[in-house]
Design a protein that fits this description.
The protein has helices at residues 24-31, 38-59, 158-173, 186-195; strands at 4-9, 66-72, 82-84, 89-98, 104-106, 112-115, 121-125, 142-148. It is of the alpha+beta class and 198 residues long. Helix 1 (24-31) crosses helix 2 (38-59) and helix 3 (158-173) packs antiparallel against helix 4 (186-195). The longest helix has 22 residues, at 38-59.
């Protein structure tokens, strides 16, 4: 099995004002704050961002749209698949590797198959092909640049939406615990388990 370095986000997450998923009016009603209060909106936005971060990291998923790079030291053997963490993976933007001589080679869609519907996303060689050889001993010889997460106009899984609101409410009522998971909470664990793919 090749050595993997987890997916690295290269675009900053959208602010709560830019994120089309931030349900401010619903959040204001849920938290019992004035919908027109700027300070309350900022607090809710910070809680929202913390909740999204916690869920994404705890479940190895990507809710907010982001550009990312996934790196590998070597290809799997033969026709074995490459699994890309933090689904959903929506698009492969660039797929490069270092060949035996250390030159950067770009793979095209004629060289590989992409499955973004699976969790995690998968890459396989095109029919009749195998993965090429990489430079021996090179670190991060393979770089896969991709888009992951949900577009602003596409819904999140219901469990993610419920969990974001739950965490926002929990932290709003327990300010000193903001950012930490509610330990031993069965609802929290149940919703996390619905979202985890590993």
């Amino acid at each position: 099995m090749p050595t993997t370095n987890d997916l690295i986000l290269v675009s900053p997450p959208p602010s709560y004002e830019e994120d089309g998923h931030f349900p401010w009016l619903e959040a204001a009603r849920y938290l019992g704050v004035d919908q027109g209060d700027v300070e309350s909106r900022q607090v809710a936005g910070q809680l929202y961002g913390s909740a999204v971060d916690l869920i994404q990291n705890a479940c190895s998923i990507q809710l907010q749209e982001a550009e990312a790079v996934f790196r590998l030291d070597a290809f799997p053997s033969g026709r074995d698949e490459i699994q890309i963490p933090r689904p959903p993976v929506r698009e492969i933007l660039e797929f490069t590797y270092l060949d035996r001589n250390g030159a950067t080679v770009t793979l095209t869609t004629e060289d590989y198959q992409f499955d973004g519907d699976s969790q995690p996303g998968r890459l396989l060689p095109a029919p009749g092909k195998t993965w090429p050889a990489t430079q021996i001993g090179a670190i991060n010889a393979i770089r896969i640049r991709l888009m992951c997460g949900h577009a602003a106009n596409s819904p999140w899984p219901p469990s993610a939406q419920r969990l974001v609101f739950y965490l926002m409410g929990y932290w709003f009522e327990n300010r000193l615990q903001a950012g930490s998971a509610p330990a031993g909470d069965p609802f929290f664990e149940q919703q996390l388990n619905l979202l985890r793919w590993i």
